[in-house]
Amino acid sequence: MKKTVLALSLLIGLGATAASYAALPQTVRIGTDTTYAPFSSKDAKGDFVGFDIDLGNEMCQRMQVKCTWVASDFDALIPSLKAKKIDAIISSLSITDKRQQEIAFSDKLYAADSRLIAAKGSPIQPTLESLKGKHVGVLQGSTQEAYANDNWRTKGVNVVAYANQDLIYSDLTAGRLDAALQDEVAASEGFLKQPAGKSMRLPALPLRIKNTLATGRGLGCAKTIPS
């Protein structure tokens, strides 16, 4: 299995050659979930904004190619990549063994822990004893969903999967969820510092679960593309 030209070229600092850049399509389509601020979201004008967006735009500028952003539900990103509807994924995508069976990844771009969010005053902690009988929201297709299903669902925790993060936050603030599990930065910067998150808090410590809650995030692309 060869490393794709696209994945190698998109990485900052690899020093891809002009010949490698020439092998890229004229327009590179990058898929992202725009409900995951501060990594990826849309502003009031409908423009794509966030850390992942800035990262992708910088890569495209260095490659001197046109890149277009494609908004998608998180769990549709890998199927879209495999169906050739997009050329790459930059969407706080964790590098896991399971995903590496389907797509190729760049080297780790950054890391992020996972944290619970719960209402201020709630005694909830990220333990089975505390969560038993409670409703916990997770993003469908995420490593947080995989962890919650493996460790909580069969032991009395009601794990509820959502198509996007905005739906999770909506149900959390409305009291339909007792807690939500997501990236720490998405929780603290993308939600708790916003007006909608003012009644919420981060309980206890982050979860660091090897091989399930991966700490490395990378760029995803097809395992093979034409050279």
From TrEMBL:
Please, which domain of life does this record's source organism belong to?
A: Bacteria
Question: Keyword Signal: yes or no?
Answer: yes
Q: Which SMART domains match?
A: PBPb
What Gene3D superfamilies has UniProt attached to this entry? Periplasmic binding protein-like II
PROSITE patterns linked to this entry: SBP_BACTERIAL_3
| A GO term from the CC aspect | outer membrane-bounded periplasmic space
User: Its principal location?
Assistant: other
PANTHER family xref list: LYSINE_ARGININE_ORNITHINE-BINDING PERIPLASMIC PROTEIN (PTHR35936:SF23), MEMBRANE-BOUND LYTIC MUREIN TRANSGLYCOSYLASE F (PTHR35936)
Q: What protein name is recorded for this chain?
A: Lysine-arginine-ornithine-binding periplasmic protein
